[in-house]
Design a protein that fits this description.
Radius of gyration: 20 Å
Number of strands: 2
Shape: globular
Number of helices: 18
Order of helices and strands: HHHHHHHHHHHHEHHEHHHH
Mean pLDDT: 85
Protein name: Peroxidase
Largest sheet: 2 strands, antiparallel
Distance between the termini: 68 Å
Keywords: Oxidoreductase, Peroxidase
Bound molecules: protoporphyrin IX containing FE
Strand content: under 5%
Length: 381
Amino acid sequence: MNCCYSSISSLIFIILIFHLISISSLAYPVDQDVDHQHGPSTDQDLSSTMGYSPNSSEDDSIAITTIVPPENEMLGSEEWPSSSYYHRRCPNKSVEQIIYRKVKEWVDKDYTIAPSLLRLHFHDCAVRGCDASILLDCEESERRADVSKTLRAFEVIDDIKTEIEKECPKTVSCADILTAAARDATVLLGAKYWTVPFGRKDGRVSIAKEADAIVPRGHENTTTLLELFQSMGLDVSDLVILEGAHTIGRSSCREVQKRIYDHKGSGKPDGSIKKEYLNYLQRKCRWESEYVELDEETPWKFDTMYYKNLVNNMGLLSTDQLLISDSRTKPIAKALASIPTSLYAHIFGASMTKLGSVGVLAGKDEGEIRTNCNFVNSYDY
Ligand code: HEM
């Protein structure tokens, strides 16, 4: 029985890797790579801070041969998605360089801000697409939702926006800034650089109730998460790959207390948690207001430890741990636990590109370029 299971799982593993590599090929069209003139800071910067080299042989190990339609045919809009979108619109200074420099300044001061930027981007895209609706700061906006209470890093986006407005006023959307800042922050903790296409517009609608209804909190079952991802045009692989974002950052104890003290109203902890880990969590999470790392082993390093933890019954959120027991996600999670971080980072970047394309407002009459990310514009131009 075991033997049969293991040969089936190796087969699934091989099929999965082919599948994952083909996803990543699609997200990296041959003609749309790092722009060395306007690109995301200099390669020098990236390689020195993150050990990343765009020409490294590690990248070459993945064949990128898929022929994809030109950028502007992919989603039917005239301008979106385009990696050179701001080259003409903001020619004197590279928008991506400004974003990278600012994100680095903030992360150098406080590295815990990096995962917060990544999470902010996910929350943005999950509700009404990647339109910066999460940044709007008014009564009953997404930002004021209960599920948004522990979101951080809004001030990073404001800081970047202020700087960019000085260079190129009314040109760069908050949605594009947030997407690129999330990428840069993740890369600073060890992820591999991925191309962010630009051309998103900012939305004018943001409703707290929608965020509370849609954004998952860690108590959902896998079907609910799969349905959410499906509604965003993402598939089961994207779900498992992107939840790996929990290899960095932390959670408030509020989200895990039920699981470690009173699972499903049983008065007992969730029996799937490894005993030593449970003891650790119970010591760490005496109060709701405290924090605990999502990946206890290497919380501030982007790697595959998240998946290894799941195999060892050390997933923090029950949604994390369920990935390794649900038959739809288990083969993928197990495969990701056993591949090198460099390959995982590549696959992660591909799924992030898909996430960053969800529900983008790019049509002629859609959205606007906010001048202040916290408020919709009060005028038309
Ligand atoms: C799909 C199911 C997901 C669930 C159920 C989930 C749930 C959560 C929860 C409960 C927290 C802690 C919140 C708190 O402190 O109150 C958290 C943190 C975090 N999430 Fe997720 N999340 C999911 C997907 C994602 C995705 C797709 C990403 C990014 C691509 C992401 C990135 C993060 C990061 C980086 C943190 C740490 C934030 C920090 O340290 O400030 N999550 N998530």
